[in-house]
Structure formats: C-alpha cells, structure tokens
Amino acid sequence: MAILLNRYQLAVPILLLTAKCFSSNIMSTVTVSDTSLVEKAKNLAPPLSSGKHKGQAGRIGVFGGSIEFTGAPYFSSISALRVGADLSYVFTIKDAAFVIKSYSPELMVLPFLDDQEAIEKISPWIDRLHVALLGPGLGRLKSTQGIFEKIIDVCRSKNIPLVIDADGLFFIADNPNIIKDYPAPVILTPNKMEFQRLIGDKQNVTKEEQAIQFLEKVGSNVTLFCKDATDEIITMTKNVKISGGGSGRRCGGQGDMLGGAMSTFLAWALDKKWEPAVACYAASKLTRDCNAKSFAKYGRSMLVTDMIHELPEVFRENFELKDEQFN
Ligand SMILES: *[C@@H]1O[C@H](CO)[C@@H](O)[C@H](O)[C@H]1NC(C)=O
Ligand SMILES: *[C@@H]1O[C@H](CO)[C@@H](O)[C@H](O)[C@H]1NC(C)=O
C-alpha cells in the first residue's frame, strides 16, 4: 500500500511536468528574426495601478462596419479591450450600430459614419483616442471613401496614430496620398491580395523592394505589416519576419482580431516611445498563439470567437508583467 501511494505521488508531478512541456511547446513555436522585439513586447503592458484613471491604458477607436459587415468591427474592438485598452469605441453607420451594440454592452457604439454631419459629430471624439483603427467591415462604397478620407484628415490634424486594415487599405490603394507624410505613426496591415493591390506584384522585383518604393512615396512614418504564412514587418530601416504558431485553419475575423490587438499594443508602444514594430510583433504573436491554442481544442470547427476566448491566457503567458502587478 505504501509503495502504491508513493508511486501515485510520483505520478502526479510527472504528469504536470508533461502537461507543462506540452503547453510551452505550443507557445514557443512562433519565431521572429529580431529578438529585441520579444524582450520589448514582454514589457509593453502598463502596470495595473489603482493610481491611474480610466482611459490611461488606452482609448481605441474602430472605424468600420456596414450593412454587410457587422462582425468585423466587433471582433476588432472587443480584442482591443481584451488586450487591455480601457475604452473601445466603434464608429459605424446607423443601421449597423444597433446590431453591434447588441453583441456587447462593453463597447461604445456611435452611429455617425453615415450621418449628414458625420465629421462634426465624430471630430470631438477623435480628440480622446490614442489610436484609430480604420477599415474593418467598412465596405467599399464611394460615399464611404469620402468619409474615410475626411476622418484621416481630422486624425492628421490631431496627430492620432493609425492602424489601417481591410477595406481601409482598398481606399488607400486608390489614394495613397491621403497618408503621405502623416505626422504620427501609421501601420498598414495588408494580406497578400491587399499587398498586391496596394503596392504591386511585379515579378522581377522582391516584395521588400516594392514595399520600400511604396514607403518612399508615403513617408517614413508608415510601417507595413504584411500578413501571410510568414508575417513581415517592413519599414524604411527594418525587415522582420515572424513565423510559426497558428494552424492551417483560416476562419474569418482573424485579421479583425489582429488589428484590434495591434491598436492597443501600439498605444502602449508609443507611450514608451518604442517603434510600432513592437506592436506588430506582439499582435502577431498573440494571434498566432490564440489560433494554435484554439485549434488544438476545436480543429476545423474553430471560430475567431474561440480564439478570442484564448486571448486572456495567451496574454498572461506572454505579455503580463510578472512583478509589480498591482501597485
Ligand atoms: C513622423 O511622426 C513623428 C511623431 O511620431 C513626427 O514628429 C514627425 O514629424 C513625423 N514625420 C512627418 C514627415 O510628418
Ligand atoms: C521589371 O520588368 C518590367 C517589365 O515587366 C520592366 O519594365 C522593368 O524594367 C523590370 N525591372 C527590373 C528591375 O528589372
């Protein structure tokens, strides 16, 4: 009996050890060609402190949504919140606003995008934003392009950092001048198709060379985050590749999740006077790990909602400050 008990006692720690190795195996599969970003990303999150007031950890504005797409801005803004922004606003059209509000009471949903006085109504809110994310589910109507460009002009006048994704990139491809010499950091997050439309697909020139030509046109405050099996961060002075993690499962909404997470990370990076590439890496790592973790549970049935459920744990493992958590 005593021997049995001993064996049992031995077995438990061994099992725990195995489980731990297994989970850290999953977590360690993301690799990045610039390890300084990993160190910075670990120290990116501001300490949780009772001395701070609401809003200091980030106020993110998501500009998106349309009759067709209400999920995209929701996934972005809830991810921005889950990463740790204090407040997340969604600026959308009237008919999408009630739908998005009904998904979540956490978000402030402002139905001004198709208002007659859109800019007058939106402008005062822009003052409060640390980062504006433009594009998720925005649609490609000509009238939307008009308001999109006016919002960028307002953001420009107030030096608001931008993340531009999805249909926002469609409009930028039409008129890249709108972000030329932007006075604050801008991250563009094209996937393969969006890259081709925005920057080109010349066969005899490398992706990086084409990207640099584009950056020379729009100015050095723009960072490209090119989404693919290997993500690539391209700036005038840097090229970083991120691979691993993730899975073969490509459910809709992952780009929206990534953009929302990146916006909060960007607010934090700029607060520390760090380069936007840190936010790009952190968002890529987070999304890749959430994908891998939820794929392990749900396989082919995995949805982006499942990935967002993994976010708190992936965040804690990679981005939570270990000491001075509450002071
Ligand atoms: C780029 O952004 C910085 C702030 O991050 C600003 O000081 C600088 O003037 C901007 N560059 C241009 C060309 O506007
Ligand atoms: C690439 O090919 C195009 C024609 O397809 C040509 O005009 C251009 O000069 C080539 N560029 C280089 C760098 O070879």
From TrEMBL:
EC number: 4.2.1.93
UniProt-listed InterPro entries: CARKD (IPR000631), Ribokinase-like (IPR029056)
Signal peptide positions (record): 1-23
Molecular function per GO: ATP binding; ATP-dependent NAD(P)H-hydrate dehydratase activity
Transmembrane annotation, as ranges: none
Cofactors: Mg(2+)
GO biological process: metabolite repair; nicotinamide nucleotide metabolic process
Residues given in the record as ATP binding sites: 227-231, 246-255
Enzyme kind, highest EC tier: lyase
Keywords: ATP-binding, Lyase, NAD, NADP, Nucleotide-binding, Phosphoprotein, Signal
UniProt-annotated binding residues for (6S)-NADPHX: G137, N191, K192, M193, E194, F195, Q196, R197, D256
Reactions accelerated catalytically: (6S)-NADHX + ATP = ADP + phosphate + NADH + H(+); (6S)-NADPHX + ATP = ADP + phosphate + NADPH + H(+)
Family note: Belongs to the NnrD/CARKD family.
Purpose: Catalyzes the dehydration of the S-form of NAD(P)HX at the expense of ATP, which is converted to ADP. Together with NAD(P)HX epimerase, which catalyzes the epimerization of the S- and R-forms, the enzyme allows the repair of both epimers of NAD(P)HX, a damaged form of NAD(P)H that is a result of enzymatic or heat-dependent hydration.
Protein name: ATP-dependent (S)-NAD(P)H-hydrate dehydratase
Species in which this protein is naturally found: Ceutorhynchus assimilis (cabbage seed weevil)
